[in-house]
Amino acid sequence: MVEIETRTLETPGATIWYDVRRGRADAGGGDPVLFLVGSPMDASGFVTLASHFTDRTVVTYDPRGAGRSIRKDGAAEIVPEEHADDLRRVIEALDAGAVDMFASSGGAVNALALVSRHPELVGTLVAHEPPAAPVLPDSEAALAVCADIHATYMRDGLGPAMAKFIAMAGRKGPFPDDWADEPAPDPAAFGLPTEDDGSRDDPLLGQNMRGCTGYRPDFGALRAASTRIVVAAGKESEGEFCARAAVEVAAGLGTEPAIFPSDHGGFMGGEYGQHGAPAEFAEALREVLQAER
Questions:
Q1: For strand 34-37 and strand 99-104, is the pairing parallel, antiparallel, or unpaired?
Q2: What are the helix (H) ranges across the chain?
Q3: SS3 236
Q4: How many distinct helices (H) and strands (E) make up the chain?
Q5: Tally of CB atoms within 10 A around 186
Q6: Per-residue pLDDT tens digits for 228-284
Q7: Which positions ≥6 away from 231 have C-beta within 8 Å?
Q8: For residues 243 and 258, what is the distance between their CA atoms, to the nearest angstrom?
Q9: Strand partners of residue 103
Q10: Which domains occur in the chain, in start order?
Q11: Alpha-carbon torsion, ordered 141, 145, 146, 148, to 10 deg
Q12: Where is each AB hydrolase-1 domain found (predicted)?
């Protein structure tokens, strides 16, 4: 049986909720805590992946502004350094030493920001498809695409902006300079709302879109860090924005990316309606985490 304990942590500007899953790890296992991190995806996206690691303590959390973690700072957007500070505080609150961390998408960007500042808190980081646009050869065009999606959200609401985001995330190859001149995708084609409900607090489009994708990793600090960093990309994601960024981040660290099964959401087993290859993904993750033990 796996026991799940939910905790809260007060941080400047937010109350952070996180879950500690204790399985057979407390019966004598010597592995570090495994922290599963997304952004803006919250803990609910890691239920399936966590179920494959019942032999150790697993922690998941809701980033500020997402899920249960309520913001109280009144600011519109969030930058990776803020998320990194929240991660630091959660790890310190665990009082269990350095953790192993699997961080995906925006979570991988935030984890890189954490390790560049506090490498002593993370033994091994697996950074899966961090969408860091500044590392791309077509960085100016990529950043313009992200800015356009944010502007669309602020102007037209969720449906039109999310349709653009889906088209952007799945696009193969470099972004053209004339992205904004292309016909906008129809929200209805993706089952998205066509009417604007007036809200502007979506964790992805409103709070993290520009700050996350605009983050440039501190490669000097990361190369000097005591943390073992493995950058990963999905086999089926080749040529897509996040996978291309993963390749460039790995190159900046002087390494090659680890190729994981499936795609950007390969660890999911039905969360948010997305089905990857979670068993195979978990096995690949386990192999990477145990590689130097």
A1: parallel
A2: 47-50, 80-94, 106-117, 139-156, 158-170, 209-213, 219-224, 241-252, 278-290
A3: helix
A4: 9, 9
A5: 12
A6: 999 999 999 999 999 999 999 999 999 999 999 999 999 999 999 899 999 999 999
A7: 127, 130, 246, 249, 250, 253, 255, 257, 258
A8: 11
A9: 37, 127
A10: 3-132+215-290 (3.40.50.1820), 139-209 (no CATH)
A11: 130
A12: 32-145
Tokens 């803006």, residue?
40
Q: Whose structure tokens read 């992946």?
A: 49
Q: Find the largest Cα–Cα distance for the chain.
A: 59
Alpha-carbon distance values, 219 to 128, 216, 251 (Å): 17, 9, 10
Q: Please indicate, yes or no, whether the overall pTM of this predicted structure exceeds 0.90.
A: yes
Write the pLDDT tens digit of every residue in 266-280.
999 999 989 999 999
- Residue recorded with tokens 């150790």: 56
Residue 281 backbone dihedrals phi, psi, to 5 degrees: -65, -45
